[in-house]
Each structure stands twice: as C-alpha cells, then as structure tokens.
Design goal:
The chain is of the alpha/beta class. It has a single domain, classed as Alpha/Beta hydrolase fold, catalytic domain (Rossmann fold), CATH 3.40.50. It has 8 helices and 9 strands. The strands form 2 sheets. The protein has a 6-stranded parallel beta sheet with strand order 2-1-3-4-8-9, with helices on both faces. A 3-stranded antiparallel beta sheet has the order 5-6-7.
Length: about 230
C-alpha cells in the first residue's frame, strides 16, 4: 500500500480531492489531503511545505507526493525534508532552484489561455472570478460541480510568488509530470516544456481540463495508481 499526499493548488483546499481519496482507497491505497494556508500573507512555499511535512509525520512506508498547479512549488521542498518515493506534478508549475517562482523564462511558451480574470483584494490576496473559474479551471466539469467548486474557492496570497526557491538543486527523487490536453491555466505546450526543462521528464498527458480530480476522477485515479 502507498500513501498519496495530495497537495492542492492556488485558492483550493483539501476538498478538491474528495473524489480521488475514495477511488485510491478502492485501489488499495491511502491518502492524506492537505489544507494549505493559502490566504495567509505571512506564509511562503516553505511554510506550505512545513504544513505538508507535519501532516505526514505519522506516516511510515512509501509516500507519493502529488502537487496540483501551484502545489508543484511546494512538493519538491517537502521531498528535501523527508523521505518520499516519488513526486507527481499534476497540471503544475515548477520551481527553479535558487530563482523566483515566476521569473523570466524567454523560451517558455504561453502558460495560460487568454481571458483569465483575477480579483484583487484589499488584504493583498487574489481570487478567481466565478466566470474565470468556470472558463479556465473547470471547463470540462459538470455545471453542478462548477457551482460546488466556485463556492469553496478561497483567496490566495501573492506572498509565495516573491520568495526565491530555497533549494540548491532538485531533490534526488523520482519525478512524474501529468498534464492535461484542455488545460487553460497550465496549457499543454507549457506543461510539456516545464516537465522537460525543469523536472527532466516527458509529460504524461490525459484528456481533461485543469481540474481532472473533478472532471475525470476515475481516469486520474487510474493514472495515479500506475505511479504508486
């Protein structure tokens, strides 16, 4: 049995894995879905990593870390602090050791489809507008799932985006990248680019949007299980 540590992306929470956890259990694996302090303006990616490490302190045996979207910035920091079997990046943005998270990368293709709108708040957080969430995060999801997800979305602090990645190099851990063919936040060509140029792997592509844990949970559980 493998334990999957499921790390959500910007503005989400452990709730986004609600359809994946039972499916992994049906396939013989356990899961820990983590809630990151994404609204906290004092929290960096290192803070997020602390939260994940703490959530796994009682877990022995194989751990597969899954980082969705912005969670891809956190899981390598976790792998540098505790033993893990594998890193799985799902529709993820990836760090460059010693560099800012979203610093210039002239060779990178566009990452996000046009039309994304974010709301800026007085507390220096941002959030997805309901329309942009529907068009960019959940474009393959059923309308009821879109409404459910939009109601649960949280604000996201920009603080981590200004923090240089503290890793001197990538941790020596097996890496997998899963991209999605209809992703409008981390578009397919960008996903393939960061998988190869930063993680050193070829992306495995599945037919889904940015939120395969909602739009194709069976297919995602099957793919994750192959990497257990």
């Amino acid at each position: 049995m493998t334990t999957f540590a499921l790390v959500h992306g910007a503005g989400h929470g452990a709730w986004c894995w609600d359809r994946i956890v039972p499916r992994l259990k049906e396939r013989g694996h356990s899961s820990v879905a983590v809630n990151l302090p994404c609204e906290d303006n004092s929290a960096t990616f290192s803070t997020y990593a602390n939260v994940v490490v703490e959530s796994l302190k009682r877990i022995d045996g194989d751990v597969v870390l899954v980082g969705h979207s912005l969670g891809g910035m956190t899981v390598p920091l976790v792998a540098a602090r505790r033993p893990v079997k594998r890193l799985v990046f799902l529709c993820a943005v990836l760090p460059i050791p010693g560099a800012l998270p979203f610093g210039p990368d002239p060779e990178a293709p566009p990452s996000t489809a046009p039309g994304l709108e974010l709301e800026e708040h007085d507390d220096r957080t941002i959030s997805f507008t309901p329309a942009s969430a529907a068009s960019h995060l959940y474009n393959r999801c059923a309308p009821a799932d879109v409404r459910w997800s939009v109601a649960l979305l949280r604000r996201q602090s920009r603080t981590p985006n200004h923090d240089v990645c503290p890793l001197p190099a990538w941790p020596d851990v097996d890496r997998i990248y899963i991209g999605c063919t209809d992703d409008r936040i981390v578009m397919p060509e960008y996903a393939r680019y960061v998988a190869r140029s930063r993680a050193g792997v070829d992306a495995t592509m599945i037919d889904a949007d940015h939120s395969p844990f909602l739009s194709v949970p069976e297919a995602l559980a099957d793919v994750l299980t192959t990497f257990a």
